[in-house]
Write a structure and sequence with these properties.
The protein is α/β, with parallel strands linked by helices and about 160 residues long. Helix content is about 45%, strand content about 15%.
């Protein structure tokens, strides 16, 4: 069965696209390419069409994360039915997701850090904190926890 995962942040140029790239790498490392699809989107329209933010790209490259040709886009209401998991980074993302997608009737929407040993933590926006390395570490931790959950479900 194909599992479709959508990562969400405010602009889709830092956190969510990083999660897409990191998680895609983990999917490939674990041989799950045929069973997991990954994408990312924004809750806002501010950055539509833009590539990953250069300081975030640099942080990913420093950790040998493959960078794709992503362009920022906004999540659409109909995507709720297209994805199995919709993963947000912080409370603001959750607020705007509820406005765009409506009620989470199937309990698909989660925070990325729910898949770690610190499930109540949120991933701060490095656009404001300027700490792209911390954002990378937190996103990586969340992605590793999520891939572990998927691997356990396959057993």
């Amino acid at each position: 069965m194909q599992k479709k995962i959508l990562f969400i942040c405010h602009g889709n140029i830092c956190r969510s696209v990083s999660a897409e790239y990191i998680f895609s790498m983990l999917v490939k490392e674990h041989g799950l390419e045929d069973s997991v699809t990954v994408d990312s989107a924004a809750t806002s329209r501010e950055e539509i069409g833009n590539t990953i933010y250069p300081p975030m790209e640099k942080a990913l490259r420093n950790h040998d994360i493959p960078i794709g040709s992503h362009r920022a886009r906004q999540v659409r209401r109909e995507e709720y039915d297209l994805f199995d998991l919709i993963i947000a980074m912080d409370e603001e993302n959750m607020y705007y997701l509820s406005r765009i997608l409506g009620e989470d009737r199937d309990k698909k929407i989660h925070y990325l850090m729910e898949y770690t040993d610190d499930p109540h933590a949120k991933i701060e926006d490095p656009w404001y904190t300027r700490d792209f390395e911390k954002a990378y570490r937190d996103i990586r931790r969340g992605c590793e926890g999520l891939i572990d959950m998927l691997l356990q479900q396959r057993e």
